[in-house]
Amino acid sequence: MSVRVSFVVVSHSDALARGVCELAAQMAPDVHFEAAGGTDDGRIGTSYDRVEAALEASLAAVDGDGSGVIVLTDLGSATMTVESVIDMSDEPERVRFVDTCLVEGAVASSVRAQLGEDLHQVADVAAALAPRLDDASAQEAPSPAAPGPGGGAASASSMWAEGDAVVADPVGLHARPAAAFVRLAGSFDAEITVNGADGGSVLDLMALGITQGQSVHIEANGADATAAVAALTDMLESATKQPSESKETT
């Protein structure tokens, strides 16, 4: 499925905007990102022209039904600039400004865009993170789910399956490995959890704090449940260290 959603990251700092795009692109390599940070002369601030150019480039990068651009910002005055640019856009219906956590919103929603979800679906993922700004409890890791019938061995019914896996990746289930897990999980017709956390959310998986050598419990419910558990278990247990991740911390 082709990617239908691109992103514009607007910040008062050019370095911050580019950094967020760089980080999110590690999780969603096929998604198009445009950074619009700083003023035209390199100072801290925002630029209408930069935001407009970034939005036009992002709109041109995606097409088809449900396609469009998610715009994320850092502070209030950047939001005002973005709203002005969207108002003057030729295709405002294909643009969604989402007032949410900048870094978390970019990472979590871009992974969903990588899966081919449409503009409204991706925007909903980003918007769902907004309460985390004021709710510290939302950052707590979910409690591990109790093993299903049969204990650690993989078991399944026609719509439900479970299994355990020992995480082999040196960085654990963090950042890129978590994004890879979400992308693979999204290819199956099943709802998936890992130790009770949503297997479709990069942030929820990272919040578990899973390190190399730890065992995780995977459950899936849906038409592809058995295949999903088998594939995800194999991925976690056969992961090998990537050179670019050798210095990544958990």
UniProtKB/TrEMBL annotation:
UniProt record, GO biological process: glycerol catabolic process; phosphoenolpyruvate-dependent sugar phosphotransferase system
Protein name: Phosphocarrier protein HPr
InterPro entries: DhaM, DhaM_N, HPr-like, HPr-like_sf, PTS_EIIA_man-typ, PTS_EIIA_man-typ_sf, PTS_HPr_His_P_site
Organism: Schaalia odontolytica
Record-annotated PTS EIIA type-4 domain positions: 4-141
GO MF, one example: phosphoenolpyruvate-glycerone phosphotransferase activity
Domain HPr: 160-246
Entries under Pfam families matching the protein: EIIA-man, PTS-HPr
Protein EC: 2.7.1.121
A cellular component annotation (GO) from this entry: membrane
Record field: catalytic activity: dihydroxyacetone + phosphoenolpyruvate = dihydroxyacetone phosphate + pyruvate
Keywords tagged on the record: Kinase, Transferase
Oligomer and partners: Homodimer. The dihydroxyacetone kinase complex is composed of a homodimer of DhaM, a homodimer of DhaK and the subunit DhaL.
Annotated segments matching region Disordered: 134-157
Domain of life: Bacteria
Source lineage: Bacteria, Bacillati, Actinomycetota, Actinomycetes, Actinomycetales
Record function comment: General (non sugar-specific) component of the phosphoenolpyruvate-dependent sugar phosphotransferase system (sugar PTS). This major carbohydrate active-transport system catalyzes the phosphorylation of incoming sugar substrates concomitantly with their translocation across the cell membrane. The phosphoryl group from phosphoenolpyruvate (PEP) is transferred to the phosphoryl carrier protein HPr by enzyme I. Phospho-HPr then transfers it to the PTS EIIA domain. Component of the dihydroxyacetone kinase complex, which is responsible for the phosphoenolpyruvate (PEP)-dependent phosphorylation of dihydroxyacetone. DhaM serves as the phosphoryl donor. Is phosphorylated by phosphoenolpyruvate in an EI- and HPr-dependent reaction, and a phosphorelay system on histidine residues finally leads to phosphoryl transfer to DhaL and dihydroxyacetone.
